[in-house]
From TrEMBL:
PANTHER family in UniProt: XANTHINE DEHYDROGENASE (PTHR11908), XANTHINE DEHYDROGENASE SUBUNIT D-RELATED (PTHR11908:SF157)
Superkingdom to which the source organism belongs: Bacteria
InterPro entries: Ald_Oxase/Xan_DH_a/b (IPR000674), Ald_Oxase/Xan_DH_a/b_sf (IPR036856), Ald_Oxase/xanthine_DH-like (IPR016208), AldOxase/xan_DH_MoCoBD1 (IPR008274), AldOxase/xan_DH_MoCoBD2 (IPR046867), AldOxase/xan_DH_Mopterin-bd_sf (IPR037165)
All residue ranges annotated as the Aldehyde oxidase/xanthine dehydrogenase a/b hammerhead domain in the record: 59-165
Region (Disordered) location: 1-35
Pfam families named in the record: Ald_Xan_dh_C (PF01315), MoCoBD_1 (PF02738), MoCoBD_2 (PF20256)
Protein name in the entry: Xanthine dehydrogenase family protein molybdopterin-binding subunit
Source organism of the structure: Streptomyces polygonati
Length: 789
């Protein structure tokens, strides 16, 4: 069976390179790259090596799953529930089966293996059959010879419901009737650190809410399933964890894992949402039943209904401090709305509870954290889960504390910053670099952007819309600060491991690693590592699939550490194979030889040859693993060494607010970040910018509304995203390159912590401009309106 793409372009593995520019060039208008981003040779670690598929992606010729085609192709459609909570009393597929062109209709009765699935907890049915627990839950799927036929057939399936009252308030879920056999409480984490009787001289309290953010993937969610002659199936999907997807699918299909293969297609960006299995399971089942390739391309509405979202969260806080503004105790209650199923809620709750006090030294911390099931849309892994919600709350508390003490907001933060050697509230010692004070000082001391000068052009930049929707005299400027932190890699005992193979032949190197390129730049980094270690400039990273050893999910920047570490170790093993005969011939150790720019030289300069001459037609290869040190699950008091590493960020937001209309414009975000080591300057700047922009979206506009559990206007008109016109000016004022000694290259993940920190900084700036409390994200216009006295 031949699989082709429907584009005229090349594949991502062999795409044309983009034109390289200066490493310090700005990645977006107004972005000032720091001095660390210097020009250099176009290979190896520390330079802005361009992505091989950049040109194809920008020209629209790069093949994604929606572009794939196969001989004898059928099209799939999924029937979803219109109700958030209902009992299914009857499913009749007769009319759909009788339609011309329909090849198969499947329901729960056609699942030959496990009827339940899930990433962490197998609590979600492949197809609902007794109860519907959320709006858009799959009930049946159809395969037909035309996409319109498939959609019409799905609509023709008769489902009779007994509509039930949905539980949509997470606070009411505790006392509500169980929505699931496992109950409504997914996890409760009580954190106890210090003396509960301690009381500060100054106490501030706050209630905060964070809305439901959708990851809104930029490409169509799609997939192709192809049956195999051995009775198995191949799934071509934009998976970010192909081995986990394969194992889950094989269990549902009732097949051995070696009869299910997942081939990763081009991933058009991912922030955890592509961990959902709602596409590959119906596709695989339809392909197995029909014996034909089956393709599915989701509409934007189906995307909103089908994948997981950020957890809506309710947070209650009480901060205690002494008269000088030093924190004494933090008390918090954190309630995560998991929606209908568990998904990644346990992980999100652990992060929220552990980081509830933020990157501050607090001797006494007491937190109660819960994740509960409701009939709201499912929540799951979205970049910075858990950490983002608590950041918005604890930074709101720091602003309240500053106001009550009469201190500058930056000053009260500076008096409490966390550092290396301090303790987290979980009892874990911060052993990695934690330059939080240095980051805060950098953004605090950075020059502020100029005020509008009053000319016609500057008026267009004021909030309230173009052409003078607002009055310039009603605009107030505010400056706000926020400090954020996230964990790197998995937590609480997650076995983080990745495997890579590096092969060199004929002056060319190849890397085999199942780490998925999801936009984080791993394939470019892998090329740079091999170039650096072996001096071979021509490096190719092979596409990912489940025939390769597992590398784990593309989340939390883990592939920079774990998979990058595996590639580095394999490359070093090949380097030893390459240099060992040469060292023996000249009576010296391998350590006395160095490789740079394709040349091998000895420490004394006597020996000088090239890598190509030394290879002399030989093929060398090695396979290696990288597995960071293990972590512990939080105990019954929320204590334990649960995290491998941490990374930090400081953001200063400058906003203009029209206090009559409540309109907000983010003028500038100044950021200082703890990056460990800059591996690819341009790529790093782009990741920070993207994270900040996503954070601005949550701060001002992104809120997926689901009144009574029903998603309203599931499209990009009803769910606005930041465009280029909404993206703020970004100024990177400092990148702290203090290497983490336990991480390969000393580098840290960079994209999640700006997402976590930006919404809190924007909220702080709006508070400064208006004097309003601003305790809800996204910030609604009425929260920024100041009524005349």
């Amino acid at each position: 069976m031949s699989i082709t793409d429907g584009t005229a372009g090349t594949s991502g593995a062999t795409g044309t390179t983009g034109t390289p520019g200066a490493a310090g060039a700005t990645a977006a208008t107004g972005t000032a790259a720091p001095p660390a981003l210097a020009e250099g040779p176009l290979h190896g670690i520390g330079v802005s090596l361009p992505s091989l598929d950049a040109l194809a992606k920008t020209q629209g010729t790069y093949p994604y799953a929606a572009d794939l085609w196969a001989e004898g192709l059928l099209w799939a459609a999924v029937l979803r529930s219109p109700y958030p909570h209902a009992r299914i009393t009857r499913i009749d597929t007769a009319d759909a089966v009788a339609m011309p062109g329909v090849r198969a209709v499947i329901t729960h009765e056609d699942v030959p293996g496990d009827a339940m699935h899930g990433r962490k907890v197998a609590d979600r049915p492949v197809f609902a059959h007794e109860l519907v627990r959320h709006h858009g839950e799959p009930i049946a799927a159809v395969a037909a010879d035309h996409p319109d036929t498939a959609r019409l057939a799905a609509a023709a399936i008769l489902v009779e419901y007994e509509v039930l009252e949905p539980v949509t308030d997470p606070e009411k879920a505790f006392a509500a009737e169980p929505l699931h056999p496992d109950g409504n409480l997914i996890r409760h984490i009580p954190l106890r650190f210090g003396n509960p009787e301690t009381v500060g001289e100054v106490v501030v309290e706050g209630l905060y809410r964070v809305g439901r953010q959708d990851p809104a993937p930029i490409g169509a969610e799609a997939g192709l399933a192809v049956p195999r002659p051995d009775g198995g199936v191949e799934l071509y999907v934009a998976s970010t964890d192909p081995h986990a997807d394969r194992d889950l699918a094989a269990a549902c299909f009732g097949l051995e894992t070696d009869r299910v293969k997942v081939v990763v297609t081009g991933v058009p960006g991912a922030m955890g949402d592509r961990e959902d299995s709602g596409i590959q399971l119906p596709l695989g089942l339809l392909a197995l039943k029909t014996g034909c390739p089956v393709k599915f391309v989701a509409t934007r509405e189906e995307s909103f209904l089908g994948h997981a979202h950020r957890h809506p969260t309710l947070l209650r806080y009480r901060h205690h401090a002494d008269a000088e503004g030093r924190l004494v105790k933090v008390e918090a209650q954190i309630l995560l709305d998991a929606g209908a199923y568990a998904d990644a809620s346990s992980d999100a709750l652990a992060a929220a509870v552990a980081f509830a006090a933020g990157p501050y030294v607090v001797p006494h911390v007491f937190v109660e954290g819960w994740a509960v099931r409701t009939n709201n849309p499912p929540s799951g892994h979205v970049r910075g889960e858990g950490a983002l919600q608590v950041c918005a709350a604890y930074e709101g508390q720091m602003d309240k504390l500053a106001a009550k003490l009469g201190l500058e907001p930056a000053e009260v933060r500076m008096r409490n910053v966390l550092g290396t050697g301090d303790l987290l509230p979980t009892g874990q010692t911060v052993t990695c670099p934690a330059p939080v004070g240095e980051l805060l000082k950098a953004v605090r001391d950075a020059e502020l952007p100029p005020l509008p000068d009053g000319d016609d052009e500057s008026q267009w930049l004021l909030p309230g819309g173009t052409a003078g929707a607002g009055e310039p005299g009603a605009v107030r400027r505010g400056v706000g600060y926020a400090l954020g932190m996230v964990h790197v890699l998995g937590a609480e005992g997650t076995d983080e491991v990745s495997t890579a193979t590096v092969r060199v032949h004929d002056g060319r190197a190849s890397v085999i690693c199942a780490a998925v390129e999801a936009g984080q730049g791993f394939t470019t980094l892998a090329r740079q590592i091999v170039q650096e270690v072996l001096g071979v400039e021509d490096v190719r990273v092979l596409p990912s699939d489940t025939d390769q050893p597992p590398a784990g999910p593309s989340a939390r920047g883990r592939h920079t550490w774990v998979s990058g570490g595996a590639v580095e170790r394999a490359a070093k093993m090949v380097r030893t194979q390459l240099l060992q005969p040469l060292a023996a011939k000249f009576g010296m150790s391998v350590e006395l030889l160095s490789i740079a720019d394709g040349k091998i030289t000895s420490y004394d300069g006597v020996l000088s040859t090239t890598v190509a001459e030394t290879l002399d037609g030989k093929e060398l290869w090695a396979t290696a693993q990288c597995r960071p040190h293990p972590t512990d699950r939080l105990d019954e008091g929320g204590q334990g060494d649960a995290f491998v590493g941490l990374t930090f960020c400081a953001v200063r937001a400058v906003v203009d607010v029209d206090i009559e209309l409540g309109a907000v414009r983010v003028v500038e975000l100044a950021v200082a970040q703890d990056v460990g080591r800059v591996l690819n300057p341009r790529q790093l700047v782009a990741r920070i910018e993207a994270g900040l922009t996503q954070g601005v979206g949550l701060a001002l506009m992104e809120d997926l509304r689901a009144p009574r559990g029903v998603i309203k206007r599931p499209n990009l008109t009803g769910y606005p995203l930041p465009t280029a016109l909404d993206a703020p000016e970004v100024r990177i004022v400092k990148l702290v390159e203090e290497r983490d000694v336990v991480a390969p290259f000393g580098a840290k993940a960079v994209s999640a912590v700006p997402v976590v920190t930006a919404p809190a900084a924007v909220a702080a700036a709006v508070r400064a401009a208006t004097g309003r409390p601003v305790s809800r994200l996204p910030i609604r216009p009425q929260a920024a309106i100041v009524k005349p006295a």
